[in-house]
Amino acid sequence: MAVKTLKSTQFLPISMEVAWNFFSSPRNLNEITPEDMTFNITSEIPEKMYEGLIIIYKVAPMFNIPLTWVTEITHISENHYFIDEQRKGPYRLWHHEHHFETVEGGVLMTDILHYDVGKGPFGRIASWLLVDKRVKDIFEFREQKLRELFGDSV
After folding, report:
1. Exposed / middle / buried, residue 61 (Cβ in 10 Å: 0-12, 13-18, 19+)
2. Which of 13, 103, 110, 123 reaches 20 to 30 Å from 91, CA-CA?
3. Taking CA 67 as the corner, what is the angle to CA 27 and CA 122, rounded to the nearest 5 degrees?
4. What are residue 99's DSSP bridge partners?
5. In whole angstroms, what is the distance from residue 72 CA to residue 52 CA?
C-alpha cells in the first residue's frame, strides 16, 4: 500500500461557532469543491453531521467521468475535529481529518488527509501522474474559496 499524506493549515478570521457551523453542515461541501468535479450529494443529509452519517455523492474528479462516492463521518468532537472516511469510491483508502483550534483573531483549521489509490503498479503510476496533483489542486481551490468567503486576516 502506498499511502500518501497531505496536510493543510489555514487561518480563518472567524469565530469557532461560525467555523464549526459552516464545516459541520454537509450542505456546504459543494461550495468549497471545484465546479469541474460536478459534485452532487445524492443522499438525504441533515443540517448538521453526526457520527455514523453516510453521505453519497456523484462526483467526476477526472476526465468528467462520474463516480459514486460514499463517505462516513466516523468521529466528531464538536468544535475540535471530525473525520470522514470513504466507504465506496475511487480510493483504496481515504481518511480525512478536519481539526479546528481557536487562536488569537480566529480559527486555525488543519486538514490531514491519508489516501491511497490502490490498484498495484497501475495505481502508483496513476497517483504519481494524475491523482496527487488533483488532490492538491482541490485543497488549493478550497483554500482560495475559504479566503473569499471568510477573509484571511483580522
Report:
1. buried
2. 110
3. 130
4. 81, 110
5. 6
SS3 42: coil
Domains of the chain listed by start with CATH number: 4-150 (3.30.530.20)
- The CA distance from 146 to 95, in Å, is 21
Of 113, 110, 86, 85, residue with least CA distance to 100: 110
Rounded distance between C-alpha atoms, residue 43 and residue 33, angstroms:
17
Confidence of residue 45 (pLDDT cuts 50, 70, 90): very high
CB–CB of 99/113 below 8 Å?
Answer: no
Indicate if the alpha-carbon torsion angle 117, 118, 119, 124 is positive or negative. positive
- In this prediction the pTM is 0.88
